[in-house]
Amino acid sequence: MPILEVENLSVSFKQYKRGLIQETSNVISSLNVSIEKGEILAVVGASGSGKSLLAHAILGILPENARMGGVIKYAGEKLTPLRQSELRGTEIALIPQSVNFLDPLMRVGAQVRTSAKKGDKAAAQKEVFERYHLKSNVEHMYPFQLSGGMARRTLLSTAMVSGASVIIADEPTPGLDPVVIAEALQSFREFADKGCAVMLITHDIESALTIADKIAVFYAGTTVEIAPVENFQGNGEALRHPYTKALWRALPQNDFIPIQGTSPHPSHLPQGCLFAPRCEMSSADCRNTRPDMRTLRNGMVRCIHAT
To answer: How many CB atoms lie within 10 A of CB 284?
Structure first.
């Protein structure tokens, strides 16, 4: 049984536009993912596709003007706001994209020690700082005294000592040097191999492929494909969705062919398939009806033409 399940998640925002006129933006619609113990699920997609919002929805830290639909389950139990607050930072740990999540009034060593729930907290903090090449004096610093790379390594450290069963890493490696990136990715793999579930949210497909078991591809706020990592090879012939194939071919080491067009704005989503305006396989059915997610060849896809 998956330890974390997201079923038909939707997230919208109500905003005031031109005085008292309200406008609703549907940023996420019908998003589905699941992850099992011992597994790394990499979530990839363009900026604005809903990756970070997924993490915030799971943890219950969406903004006040957000409205959420669908069901999120942890260990088979529906996550209510109360349950989310109980699990946040204990059973489910977040490595956030923004370094502003660090407490500006607390020394970073103390912040990491606070995240450790068991054992010798001081020893755990020192060990993880050594692993991520943070010198011993760093633990006495405040966040404003850290470089961007040091702050990001501190955020990595807080999750690594938490003992959480699920780690959600939201773009954890930008600004880090290659050695620390390799260390962080290896840490995620080690945690998964010990039974932890890891959700790695990233733009970097190449890095994700080195450690992930499955890749979930997001487009315009919905899941278009979930595929085993071994499908990402060759010309992408084992992949299912036209967007995933185009994304794979756009990488420099492959055909380096750019994807024509742009992702739709949340306030102007197409009626049917969200990728239809950019898809070479688009038909009248694609433009009129939004396809459901279905099982295909040991993966999942949201496309009526996928075979």
So the answer is: 9
Give bridge partners of residue 7 from the DSSP assignment: 71
| Structural domains in the chain plus CATH codes | 4-91+164-224 (3.40.50.300)
Alpha-carbon gap, residue 92 to 162, rounded angstroms: 9
Distance CA 267, CA 264 (A): 8
Tell me the C-alpha distance between 40 and 207, whole Å: 12
The model's pLDDT over 199-208, given as tens digits with 9 standing for 90+, comes to: 999 988 888 9
d(CA 207, CA 2): 24
DSSP H helices in 116-235: 121-131, 148-160, 178-193, 205-211
The gap between the terminal CA atoms of the chain, to the nearest Å, is: 27
pLDDT tens digit sequence for 31-62: 999 999 999 999 998 888 889 999 999 999 99
